[in-house]
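Pipeline run #58 for the internal structure catalog. This entry was flagged by the ingest filter as a single-chain record with no existing model, so it goes straight to prediction. Upstream metadata was stripped on purpose; only the residue string is passed forward. Reviewer on rotation: M.T. Logging verbosity set to normal.
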Amino acid sequence: MSKKIRVHLLVNETAGNGNAKKANIALQQVLNELNTPFTCQKSRFPRELTTLAKNYANTKPNKNDILIVVGGDGSFNEVLNGIKTSDYPDTPITYLPAGTGNDFARGAGLTDDPRQLIHNLLNDPEPEQVDCGYFTANIPDENTGYFVNNFGIGFDSFIVYQSNHEKLKDKLNRLNLGNLIYGLNVVKALAQQNTFTVTVKLKIKLYVTAMPILLLQLITHILVVALPFCLKLMFIVITWILLLSKSPA
């Protein structure tokens, strides 16, 4: 028997170079077809989704109220931080991936089909708990935060920042090749980013890892997502050569 739900949409229409806007339209069409009541709020500037999500959670939604985020990994992260800093940090989040990378959705096996998503919700699924990380930093205006997908510094951050500010990304998105920009910026980062040693402390354990090893793991992950096999192989070979040449003594 189908569950009666009320849906609240939080949408970043600019995600995926407009893919989120199309996904939102398709999702609303499905909701209208099924006579499912919904409301929609769209972000107008960076981090507004955090405020909108916090305000939503503070209304203490009940079990029949469903929050759906439409956007990319960044949009999902903004909503996550809004929920976790609200008065009801365990408020469930539903995610319709419509960004460029959609790493979290791919790893979690989430559907990007609006009709399938609503069908799943109407079957009254139990919310699934996912581990969430928390960080503190000395970054102005962003010295604490939550993350569920990944947390990167240095090399990783360089690639994401460059990719999000590349005009080429929009052009590649129009060709459904948006992920390629990350592979291209791997090479750019290798040429410009110096390596360094990282110390990670987990409770009573202490790990000291040379940055090239972390870089290789990250690069391999990016290449698996972004590039055809022949280009993956070429970039991996180049990566090894550059990392060996830049390894700290």
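catalog note: The domain at 6-122 is CATH 3.40.50.10330 (Rossmann fold).
catalog note: The longest strand covers residues 65-71.
status: ready for reviewer M.T.
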